[in-house]
């Protein structure tokens, strides 16, 4: 039996103005998505959020939104399967 942790996994960073370009930003996002995928995340569960700020800085977060029950959906209240 393995220990299932339903908490999301996230890789994130903030970059100041001048520390990034559109090309380097795209490469960073792809790298983070690959790392989350290598942890076992299906592509449909990988969420990417890029926040661009008025000062030219950017915040990047790529996360794995894990389901509450290992292996997908579990039973609904009342014991009826989905």
Helix/strand layout:
Elements: E1 9-15, H1 22-38, E2 46-52, E3 58-64
Antiparallel strand pairs: 1-3, 2-3
What does this structure look like?
With 82 residues, this protein is of the alpha+beta class. The protein is 21% helix and 26% strand. The chain has one helix and three strands. It has a three-stranded antiparallel β-sheet, with helices on one face. A hairpin with a 5-residue loop joins strand 2 and strand 3. The C terminus is likely disordered.
* Biggest sheet character: 3 strands, antiparallel
Gyration radius, to the nearest Å? 17 Å
Widest sheet, order of strands = 1-3-2
β content, as a range? 25-35%
Show unreliable segments.
73-82
- Could you say which overall geometry the principal axes of the C-alpha atoms support? elongated
Structural class: alpha+beta
How would you classify the quaternary structure? single chain
- What's the pLDDT, averaged over the residues? 83
- Measured distance between first and last alpha carbons: 24 Å
Helix content: 10-25%
TL;DR?
With 82 residues, this protein is α+β, with helices and mostly antiparallel strands.
Which properties best describe this structure?
single chain; 82 residues; alpha+beta; three-stranded antiparallel beta sheet; 1 helix; 26% strand; disordered C terminus
């Amino acid at each position: 039996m393995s220990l299932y942790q339903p908490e999301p996994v996230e890789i994130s960073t903030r970059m100041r103005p001048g520390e990034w370009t559109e090309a380097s930003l795209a490469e960073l996002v792809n790298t983070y998505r690959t790392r989350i995928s290598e942890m076992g995340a299906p592509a449909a569960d990988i969420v990417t959020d890029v926040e661009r700020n008025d000062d030219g800085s950017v915040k990047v977060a790529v996360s794995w939104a894990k389901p509450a029950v290992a292996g997908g959906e579990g039973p609904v209240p009342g014991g009826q399967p989905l």
